[in-house]
Amino acid sequence: MSERSERDPDTLLITLTGKDRPGVTSAVFATLARAEVHVVDLEQIVLRGRLVLGVLVTSPEGPAALDALGEAVEATASELGMSVEIERGTGDTGRRSPQRAHVTVLGTPLTAGAMAAVAARIAEAGANIDRIQRMARYPVTAIDLHVSGAAPDDLRTTLSVEAAAQGIDLAVQPANLLRRGMRLIVMDVDSTLIQGEVIEMIAAHAGCEAEVAEVTERAMRGELDFAESLRSRVALLEGVPESALEEVYQQIVVNPGARTMVRTLRRLGYRFAIVSGGFTQITDRLAADLGIHYARANTLEIVDGRLTGRVVGEIVDRAGKARALREFAADIGVPQAATVAIGDGANDLDMLAAAGLGIAYNARPVVQEAADTAVNVPYLDAIMYLLGISREEIEAADAEAGIVTPAPPLPRA
């Protein structure tokens, strides 16, 4: 065995840039094939019709063969109207650290200054950006950075501060197989899956909407015990006719992007659950309408066609939401690490902590501070970008099914 074969081979990094068109990659590899080199690494991107192709190959033996390959590659690049750079090195310098993460950045808009700040923080952490991929260009800009050389937890702590300073959303997740596997998505309902709070909509029929809204807001900020606040609010609903629940259901507005998210992820085998401090009379219908697999909420007591001002059974409170997530995951047969929880209020905190990825969606400050990441754009399907699914992939899947998916409408003021 030769000395060369006992160590990493000498390599050449060949980088071509220029206008993209069919046949570029095949022409380059036809040239490399004649030199009988081996491909060590390869990456190609196209941005606005401009191609960047990087190929790391073994270097041919001897100066003459090396010069011949260089001349052949340059001639091919010239014929293609492209620029080429050839850099000689030793070994595969592209080997990545075992500590790898996906850093997903969302902005409306996403400014160059914000990206510069994020990149600087990554560099300060001793990490490297190996690849950058656009996930969406509308209605938000979403960019996924493949980062190596720093622990995901450390990156999350460092970058969350910068995200707040720049007014952008940012998520850090380990680059592992869980991101690609089937997962369970568990969502809060009021002000997360739908706009507004159902209990306040019911309270409007009792003439006490403002009073109920004040208590709801304090409970969502974590200032009141949720179970006690729920009982006190429901007590104010005594006497409301059962027919009001039908009116409330017809008034519900699902948040922009919710149907797209459920439809797309169901195609990939994901399972969905809604866990709510609201009421089964609404959530069960909502789950059936959207194709959601599991639903858990409180049940309003109704006697002789009217609300009694009481709930039936155990209240789904902060601890109950986390318990539901664990039970649904066990029923499906996925580990808790493969769950995603989405919520906005203090009663969602235990559920967000129990999930593999806890997302604060347009949430109160106490929730944003505790969650793994915060999403503050008004489109629920933006969460799919955190899962590695691009808008182009979403639209292509919908097109195959005959569904047109325009940009989600702006949310109501």
What structural keywords apply?
single chain; 413 residues; alpha/beta; Alpha-Beta Plaits; Rossmann fold; 3 domains; seven-stranded mixed beta sheet; four-stranded antiparallel beta sheet; 15 strands; elongated
Element-by-element helix/strand order: EHEEHEEHEEHEEHHHHHEHEEHEHEHEHH
Structural class: alpha/beta
Counting H and I runs of at least 4 residues, what is the number of helices? 15
Structural domain count: 3
Instruction: Let me know the CATH homologous superfamily of the largest domain.
Output: HAD superfamily/HAD-like
Helix content: 25-40%
Give the N-terminus to C-terminus distance in angstroms: 73 Å
Number of strands: 15
Low-confidence stretches: 1-7
Write down the overall mean pLDDT. 90
Strand content: 25-35%
The major beta sheet can be summarized as: 7 strands, mixed
CATH architecture field of the largest domain: 3-Layer(aba) Sandwich
Please state how the strands of the largest beta sheet are arranged side by side.
12-11-10-9-13-14-15
Q: Choose one word for the global shape.
A: elongated
CATH hierarchy, class of the largest domain: Alpha Beta
Report the CATH topology name of the largest domain.
Rossmann fold
| Rg from Cα | 27 Å
Could you give a short description of this structure?
It catalyses: O-phospho-L-serine + H2O = L-serine + phosphate; O-phospho-D-serine + H2O = D-serine + phosphate. With 413 residues, the protein is of the alpha/beta class. It contains 15 helices and 15 strands.
